[in-house]
Design a protein that fits this description.
94 residues, 23% helix
Length: 94
């Protein structure tokens, strides 16, 4: 983010504040698309329109092995990016 001149509007330490189950679903409020990154693999989910998935369907992809929201999680307008891959972050943050 810093190399693109961006700053976070809100930073939450996942070790101090947990987002599990219903709390993780609340992160999806106002979100239309979700990009889940795992290593080199990326998966798009849409929560609006004719090809939408339900928040319950996307929730397992948002959670890590501990049941907490995966980090990093970044909200860009109506898009939620979960996980990290330099190429994806660069293409979506710019």
């Amino acid at each position: 983010m810093a190399r693109h001149g961006l700053t976070a509007g809100q930073v939450v330490d996942a070790k101090e504040e947990r987002f599990e189950g219903e709390a993780a679903l609340q992160v999806l409020k106002g979100i239309e698309d979700v990009l889940v990154l795992r290593g080199a693999k990326s998966t798009w989910f849409t929560l609006k329109g004719p090809r939408k998935v339900t928040p319950g369907e996307v929730l397992p992809r948002l959670l890590g092995p501990t049941g907490n929201l995966r980090a990093p999680t970044l909200r860009l307008g109506k898009v939620l990016m979960v996980g990290f891959a330099v190429s994806e972050w660069d293409s979506h943050i710019l």
